[in-house]
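Quick start: read one record
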Amino acid sequence: MFGVGLPELAVIIFVAILVGGPDKLPRLAKQAGRFVRQLRGFANQARDELRDQLGPDYADLELRDLDPRTIVRKQIMEAMEDEDDDPRPSRRQRSLAPGELPPYDVDAT
């Protein structure tokens, strides 16, 4: 969920034991769990409010769909699919012969 792997989790537990001590660790774990549940509830509530305000067209809206990386990835994938479906023949580029000048467009420059 947060990109925390086993090594990071081990460091977090180690620091928690050093800071809180083994006696307070269960209470700290309980508080951390409560905090994560609260954050998840806030995120779900925000998602539901967005769905209600945007209407039935966005009933399947997920918060991760609003991530800019996801949006860009989706746009790129759609563009690649459209490119594959393009009925126009692709323009082949040929190499210039030795001494041949590239085409020059007076209007474009």
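The mean pLDDT is 81.
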